[in-house]
Amino acid sequence: FFEHMPCNPADLKVSRLEGQSIIRRLGSVEGNQFTVDNLKKCTVLVFDYCDSVVIDDCTDCTFVLGPTSGSVFIRDCENCTLTVAAQQLRTRDCKKLLVKLFCPTEPIVEASTEVEFAQWNVAIPNGNVLFEKAGLKASSKNLYFKVHDFSKSNTSIPQPHWTTTAEVPEIVVYNLVSEETGGETEPGLIPDAIKSAYDADVPVRDVKLDHKGNEIKDMPTAQEPCPETKKVVGKVKWYSLANGCGSAICDDNLVVFIRRKTLPKGIKVVAGSEVEMMVSQGPRGWQSVEVLTCTPPPPKEATNGGEAKEDSTKVREEKASKKEKAKKDAKKEQEPPKKAVKEEVDSAKANKKKAKKEKREQKKIQEEEAKKEQKEEAESTKEKTKEEEKEKKKEKKEKKKEKKEQKKAEKVVEEKDAPPPGVATVPGDEGGKKKGKKGKKKQGTHDDPMQQQLAAGQCLPGTTKAQEPVSTLQRGRVEIMHYTDDHHVRMKTFLTEAGMYVKSLDNRQMLRKQIEFDPTSIIIAVTDDIIIGTVYCLYNPWQAFIYHLCVHPQHRNHQPTVANLLMDKAEKQLKARGIQCPTLFVERDNTPVSSFYERRGWFTTEHCLCMGKDL
């Protein structure tokens, strides 16, 4: 893109005029957008290059636009003539247009009728310079005849939508009168980009314009007799019968353009003909006005007689035959004998076959070895699986033995820790070993007030001394602390022995993620470096949950109860974080656990429904 030069904004738009002539000279547009709208019976001449042109709502108007680097868009126009050179042209809702176009792309017609396309036929001042600034190249092909119709299938628009004509009736040369002198003219020149598109017989019409764009009709045309006509004699350099034009070199090296129209009837012009003609100065240089005589060039004379010619031809033929024989003999000497070639070919084929067989045998051997290796691997894996199954069975047997031994030890401890005679016991609190529906062991509760008094170390009715609480670790010390990754092995053994281990939630990776998110979320009870209880305190800014409250069966009678110690720690921790109403879940049939929470002040919400889904 070229750099836009500053210009008067008023020169870039023409609007709402009737019966006037508008002209824009060089430097008035300078590569900017030019717009026209609402004109009637006007003539618009733009002898400058534009970026783009938009024409709207014009009737009975004539437009001659300089080269345009972008697109020319014509809308809602009727009975207008447009001469333009542009990169792209498009019409919409137009009727009865004559478009004389130079365009390297296909023109577009949309919702228009009776649009006729022809070739650009205008010569304007500084034509070559303006074409270069607009980026239109001489090598580009003029595609004015390749029209693309967007409304081709629309039957509501009258036919024909568009037509094309290849004939150029004349070339119009615009000459502008200088504004400063008033007498000198700026001659209009045909640009090189379109000069080759016209036949030599096309007449040329000169149009002289004043500074307001009005035509001055006192200028003679190129077809009228010119006072500078003179007679010359020369020799034809070239002449094209297809194009009907040529050139001749005359006296004083004067190059004259020969036109077919100036030749008399029955005379054929070829290169080398001697020509006598009347010539005059035209817009494209000296050109023929009338060819007076034309003598063809003399035939070439023979240098030798007929016999000499025949002898020379025979000698040439003999020499050519000798050369051909010598070439054939040389080829035969260079080529090896056919038998040797066949033997070499056969040996090469045999070698290829052997190589193929060897490759096949190697592949078979490799496949057999691979199959053997696979069989050996399968057998070794089977043996390994068998050994692993045996080891698993052994581990199961050992676990069963350990459980039996633990049960025996528990019985012995219970017998030792049985209360002395005269001390009341609370029914239904034998170690809190009740099971729920899913086989998980639940915590023991103290529903009887007598048992609560015993747990608190108070005196029973009718006694004078406080009874010692019943526990398997009466002298042990319980510590409440937060879970760390070092506790995982002991945590897993504790949960499995208590029947509360859930692999998907209590594995090491999940617990590690939880304490990374909140290091205080898992609370454990430890005595003698053994985990005997745990509770999960899950927290987020909107809600908090109590989950996985569990106490080892052997330590559920410890006083004060491990469950209360864990819940005290969890509730204090949530209260410090500003949680006012945490939530927990209890099975409906697990009355001991629900009564334990109720004694601690927890209440049920009947309007809520707990739901879940296996993903």
Question: TL;DR?
Answer:
This protein is of the alpha/beta class and 615 residues long. It has helices at residues 127-134, 192-195, 306-334, 338-416, 449-456, 488-498, 503-506, 508-517, 562-576, 591-599; strands spanning 13-18, 21-24, 33-40, 43-46, 52-59, 62-65, 68-75, 78-92, 95-102, 108-110, 113-119, 122-123, 148-149, 162-164, 171-177, 185-186, 204-209, 215-216, 230-240, 245-250, 255-259, 274-282, 285-295, 479-482, 522-527, 530-539, 544-551, 583-584.
Task: Explain what this protein looks like in three dimensions.
This protein is α/β, with parallel strands linked by helices and 615 residues long. Among the domains are: 9-193, Pectate Lyase C-like (3 Solenoid), CATH 2.160.20.70; 225-297, Beta Barrel (OB fold (Dihydrolipoamide Acetyltransferase, E2P)), CATH 2.40.50.140; 449-599, Aminopeptidase, CATH 3.40.630.30. The chain is built from ten helices and 28 strands. Strands 1, 2, 3, 4, 5, 6, 7, 8, 9, 10, 11, 13 and 14 form a 13-stranded parallel beta sheet that branches. Strands 12, 15, 16, 17 and 18 form a five-stranded mixed beta sheet that branches. Strands 21-20-19-22-23 form a five-stranded antiparallel beta sheet, with no helix packed on it. The radius of gyration is 57 Å and the shape is elongated. The two termini are 62 Å apart. Residues 1-5, 219-227, 302-306 and 419-475 have low confidence and may be disordered.
